[in-house]
Design brief:
Elements (H helix, E strand, L loop, with lengths): L1 H13 L7 E2 L6 E2 L7 E2 L1 H24 L13 H22 L4 E2 L1 H8 L6 H10 L4 H18 L8 H5 L15 H6 L9 H31 L1
Antiparallel strand pairs: 1-4, 2-3
Helix pairs in contact: 1-2, 2-3, 5-6
Length: about 230
């Protein structure tokens, strides 16, 4: 439920006019009784709210158990209500969430434009200079001055000319321009758990394989129980 709540919080924020990263399907939203233009992300908000209910059940069980000695005590009959309520809450939240997610409209262009803001590729430029033999501390300082110049001139890194960049370091050559895109930055992180497209696809494939193995294990366990 914690993970669902975090996911829903992102959907709520990302669907606001300030972000406009995603559009939630109409079937999972409602309008406002006063403002005709408003589209409320009801399902995401309700799932986020249900998390507090599940947390409450967890605290109830922990409080129930904290004073009990070994073995069964009659206090434990109070665990059923919390457990069953959590199971039903989680099942309903998962059911509606998995119905909503495939219908989500991702506004890729808006997300791509936002990824280029805030000098997000400054570290990539510092890494580029380090690869050219400049100590990272010096590279960090050079890029810091470039960013300060960009803020002063209201220019993003990818909007600067090669001549402007070279005024801060002659080690910057034409190939540096490729390092200043969000796409290159993302795809350069090839380590396990990194953001590169190839790495993410590998992680997704592994997750599907793990899920398939778990299903087979559960099916085998059920068969053994039936045979007994």
């Amino acid at each position: 439920m914690m993970h669902l709540s975090r996911f829903c919080e992102e959907l709520v924020i990302w669907s606001t006019p300030e972000f406009r990263f995603v559009e939630l399907p109409d079937a999972f939203c409602t309008g406002s009784s006063i403002m005709p233009q408003k589209k409320n992300p009801d399902v995401a908000e309700l799932i986020r709210g249900k998390t507090g209910r599940v947390y409450g059940s967890l605290i109830s069980l922990l409080t129930l158990l904290k004073g009990l000695p070994l073995s069964y005590n009659r206090d434990l009959q109070e665990d059923k209500e919390a457990l069953f309520d959590c199971v039903e809450t989680l099942k309903s939240c998962l059911g509606i969430f998995t119905a909503m997610l495939p219908k989500l409209n991702v506004l890729e262009q808006n997300m791509s434009s936002a990824a280029q803001q805030g000098y997000t590729t400054a570290t990539d430029l510092a890494d580029y200079l380090s690869a050219k033999g400049i100590p990272f501390r010096s590279a960090h300082e050079i890029v810091g001055r470039i960013v300060a110049y960009g803020i002063r001139e209201k220019k993003a890194l990818h909007d600067m000319t090669l001549k402007e960049l070279q005024s801060f370091s002659p080690a910057i050559t034409a190939d540096a321009i490729a390092y200043l895109t969000a796409e290159h930055s993302v795809n350069s992180r090839l380590a396990r758990g990194g953001t590169a497209r190839k790495t993410v696809k590998t992680a997704i494939k592994k997750a599907w394989n793990d899920l398939h193995k778990q299903r087979k294990t559960r099916a085998a366990a059920k068969q053994i129980l039936r045979n007994k």
